[in-house]
Amino acid sequence: MSIKAAQILFDNDGYVINRIQSAGPGNVNIPEETVYEVGNYQSVGITRDIPDLSFDVEALSVNSELEGILTGVAPGSLGANQAIALADVVPIDILSPFKSGNGAFDIVRGIAIPELLLERASYRFGLRQNATQQFTLRGDTIRYIPGSPYKEVVANTDVGTEQAFSNTAIQYTEGSDNYFALNIRAVDTSTGNSKRLRFGDDFTNTSTGFTIVTPADFPSATYDEFHVVYGSAVAATYSQSVHNTTDPTAIRGRNIDVYVETAPSSGTLARWTTVQSFEANWSVQLEADEEFGSSVAVGRDFQVPEVTGSVAIRPEDPADLWTKIEQIANTPATEITGPLSPEALEVEVRLSDPDTGTVVKTFYIPDAVFTVPAVSARQQTKLDTTFSFRSESGNLTVYNGVKP
User: Are residue 339 and residue 303 in the same domain, yes or no?
Assistant: First the structure.
């Protein structure tokens, strides 16, 4: 016997991520330093610092709900054709319940990974491959729970009044502190602003609930709800119905179209033919805010995102290749194009449901600057040419449907 992938779920706020191919903490790095001293043949000990954790998920799901979660939109709340800017990411909490196995749906163990922030999103589409999307998030906390992990959203009531958990919580001890609430984030739903609360300074807790206190640096009245993660011996249950069966099983190249602006600032896009693959990558450099007296980061943020990608084509003939090169450089057909003459162009990639033809998701880059491609021929092989691009502003927007 062994633990099988079918027993492991990944949940955020009741939304079970669909079509997962692989997921979980990719790396838990705990900075360590061995301490030595003069006159001692042995080391004195090892000091450890705040962990650094990455969480990776690769999925075939092509709906926009995961991007919505990453930017603070509740599952099922996305509007038709709603825009989702990846730069608007917010911290999220991932629960990973383990089912008991043998076809049962009761949860016997679980992992809680709170306070994860998106660091990288990669979208890869091939001609005869399933469209995949991969996300890498970063945090500093992982808790192995001898029971079920839970997350609850609790309305902010009176300060000093215990706000109860739905289930009796299991204790986690670190040093002299006893945590029952493994993580609490205060959220202002009107603005999207939030704050990770400090144990002792901002809240106290017992096995039955938590209580907000009021130091000067935490104006609790400005937050209308708390997102609380904890573990409990009360077993949760995830039935088969938690898995989405209405979305496409997967999408292949025949259901994907790439459009590129015909000329800078024209607003007119033309579908590129002979496309073999498309890739887009959104990434940021996250910086953790740390402080004395805390074993976790107070928060994480970033400056400016970077967006890169590529479009690989197999041109029909020289005229087809030259037309695309002239388009990305905005060069007249009667003039020579060089490598230092690219222009910023809009790019759209539309993914359609293979059964209905409905556009389920659109990627939009407003200012993709393409690199004039190199051409490398090989005997007995058709010519494939890759057009790499970079967004001038670092902007990648996902639309839940078509771009209006």
Answer: yes
